[in-house]
Amino acid sequence: MKKNQSKISIKDIAQELGLSITTISFIINKKAKNRISDEVIQKVEAYIEKVGYKPNSAAQSLRTGKTKTIVFMVEDISDPFFSSVAKEMEKLAFDSGYKIIFCSTDNKKSRAIELISMFKDRQVDAYIITPPEDFQDEIEQLVSENQIVMLFDRFYRDADYNYVVLNNYGSTKRAVEYLKNQGFKNIAYVGLKTELSTLTDRFDGYKEAVREANRENLSLLISFDDVKSEVGNKQFEEFLELHPEIDAILFATNNLAITGLKILKKKNIQIPEDIGVITFDDRDLFELHAPAITVMSQPITSLAKEVISGTLKLLKRKHSIQDKIQIVLDGELIVRKSS
C-alpha cells in the first residue's frame, strides 16, 4: 500500500535507500544520466513508484526556474473557434509536460494588462496571446523582458514578433471570387470596425476582390460592442434597406453571421434565392441551419499544432538569437446550400 505522498520528502527517500539527497534529486529531476549508475537509478525509480512520491511543483519551479505552464489569452475562450483551438492545444501541451491556463480579455486592453500582471507573479513560462486593440506596447514590454511570447490569430505588420495566423486576406479573396463565379453580382461585406489585423486583412481582401471584378464596394462595419445589440441589428437592417441590390453577403465573423441570419429571417429574405451567404469560422449551427451555411473554415488542428510546437521551440531555445516563428495558414472553403 502506498504511503501518504504528501508526507514523503527527498530526504525520507534518501534515508530509506541509504543514498545522498543529491543523488535522489538528480534522479527525480532527470539529471542522473552519466552521473549515477543505471542500477541505482532503477532502484530509486522503483521505490518512488512504490510509495507514490510526487515532486513538489513549487519546489521544482524554484530549482528549475520553470512552472511548466503556458498562458492562452484570447478574446473570448467560450467562442467556438478559440475553444476548439484550446482543446487541441491542451492535449499537445500536456503530452510535452506543460499545462495551459485559459483566459479571456473580451477585447479589452485593461483586462489584458491585469491578467498579464497576475501571470507575471505566477512566473508562467510562455504567453500565447490574441492581442486586444491598442496592445502593441504591452507586447513589446513582454518581449523586452525576455518573456516567451507567441501571437495567435492577430499580428502586427510593423513588428517582428512570433505568430501563427490565418491567411485572412487571401481567404477572403477566395470567398468573394467563389461568390462571383456562382453568378452573384452585388456582393456585400459585413465586418467589424477595428484595427485588429484579422479583420483589417479580411476587409482588404474583400475590397481587392471586388475591385478586380469591377464590382461595387458594398460594406458595413459594426463596432465590436454593437454586434449582439439592438444598435448592431438596426445598422444591419438599414444597410439592407439602403442597398436592395445586394444578392450575396460575406460575414467576417461567426457572431456577425448569427446576427445577420436572424435579421434575414425576420425580414423574410430567402437564402440563397434572394441572398447568398458565406461566413468565416464553422460552427455546428451553420451546418444545421436550413439551408446549411457555406463557411471559410479555419484549420483548427493545424493552427493548434503550429502554435504549440512553435511555443515549445521558443521555450527550448529561450534567449538564443534565431529567426522568428511566423506561420500563415490558408482557410478551407466548405461549400453548402447557402451559396
From TrEMBL:
The keyword DNA-binding applies. The keyword Transcription regulation applies. It comes from the Bacteria. Residues 8-64 form the HTH lacI-type domain. Keywords: DNA-binding, Transcription, Transcription regulation. InterPro entries: Cro/C1-type_HTH, HTH_LacI, Lambda_DNA-bd_dom_sf, Peripla_BP/Lac1_sug-bd_dom, Peripla_BP_I. CDD domains: HTH_XRE. Gene3D superfamilies: 3.40.50.2300, lambda repressor-like DNA-binding domains (1.10.260.40). This is LacI family transcriptional regulator. It comes from Gillisia lutea. The lineage of its organism: Bacteria, Pseudomonadati, Bacteroidota, Flavobacteriia, Flavobacteriales.
